[in-house]
Amino acid sequence: MTMLEIELRGKSVNKAEHNRVLRQLLNDRSKGAVEFKHANVSALMIEMGLPYIDGYKPRGNYQASLRDEILAQWAARPVLQAAAAWMVSAPVDTRADDIDLDEVFVPVPRRNVELGVVRERAAQPVTPRPGVNYLQRDAQNAALGLAGEEYVLRLEHHRLWASGAARLADRVEHVAKTRGDGLGYDIVSFETDGRERLIEVKTTSFGAMTPFYASWREVAVSAERAEQYKLYRLFMFRAAPKVFVLDGALERTCILDAVQYSARLA
Question: CA 77 from chain center: how many Å?
Answer without folding.
Answer: 24
